[in-house]
Request: fold
Amino acid sequence: MSGPLKSIVVPPAGAFIKDGDGGQTSPATFVNPFSPSRSQFNKAQHSSQTPQRERFGSQHDLRRQSIQVLREKRQSVAPQPIHITDARRSSLAPEAPVEIMRADGQEACSPPFNLHETIIGRLDPEYIAWYNEYLIDHQFMVNTHHFDPKLLRKGGKVVPGPSHALPLPTQDFDVEGRNDNPAVPVRVWWPSAGRDAAPEGGWPLFIWAHGGGWILGSKNTENNFTTRMAEGAQCCVVSVGYRLAPENPYPDCLEDFWDVINWAAFSDSGRAALNINPERLAIGGSSAGGNIASVISHQYAASDDLPPLKLQMLLVPVTDNTASKETHLSWAENEFTPQLPAEKMMTYRRYYLQHESLWDQPEASPIFFDDASFKRLPKAVVVAAELDVLRTEDELYHEKMLRNGVDSKLYIYPRVPHHTMGLCLVLEQGRKLTMDCAKELKDAFYGTREVVDLY
Reply:
């Protein structure tokens, strides 16, 4: 592991950017996340994992056997549909019934669910006000990890705070799965000019994986963000409704995302339906979806016969599923952060990676791909939140890309937790995040950062 990151640029609205091009810090705006103490913590703790990963990584037969055992033993909670049109209609949490038991059989806690004393003094006042109005009494949204995912998916209510989706042309498709996989539902958005108004060669294509801890969410979960990427970056956006754990654990979501790439970008029917240019392709995702997109970026880059990706956009991605408060500073600092505390992240991890021997595999924890794989990666944008448990692993992932010559830029938004992207109606940081991402995507596709105001 190298030393502290070399430079940070502070844009006017307060997010930190690290892209290796120089700049000055602004102590009055934000405490430097790359201080010597933090870098030393990261280096000492994270580097100790590398030998373990290398030893396990050489046991390819063991890894394949582990995955095969999982597939043979797991039981689906509900039958897996061949077609998706009448399945997976629900997204996030409903209101909790008054009397309800946790998934582990214990009685659920009673509200209010106050912000933890270790975190409240560091939060943006805008976030505190929003939390105390909307989440403080909401059992399912605060303590998602305490309840059976099937129960959580029934209500369809999402966390309040996102802006509405832009009224853009849209169409739903069920993408045929390969190797006996079920169809994958996708939602497609085009810019307001319409599908047929594409530039010469077709619209640039951005394929997106939603967040939700691999257990929640759908193709519709982040419409507020995907529509703004379509209009802001002037591209076709495909949102992937991949299969969810625990019914469909690792690596099913990766297979679904690949099925959508192959259809949307490289099949005659997909290209014709979407009117896209496969030579201008980018992928991205948030949280668990960021994990999916980062893994796929490595796999895609290893294929010599595919046109290179223009960008990988990784929003608060899970990059290291071995992380804990003993190894990663942000896990220790932000153990009780709202919306994604450490306990919740561990629950999501165990739903998705149901055998601990998988946790340090590159396709589960992309930071463990070797340097040769990192050197092939496309340009990257990594978005992190200061008060997210995932911040340290995102810093480390960005730094590993830089060490291997990847053109990577890291944004860190101060005083906000994991779910900033979804709070663009209530957080200035959320609106800025969306605009920053639209500018980065527009630049990757067209070489310009000029974007209309999306709010």
Observations:
- The mean pLDDT is 81.
- The longest strand covers residues 276-286.
- Residues 428-446 form the longest helix (19 residues).
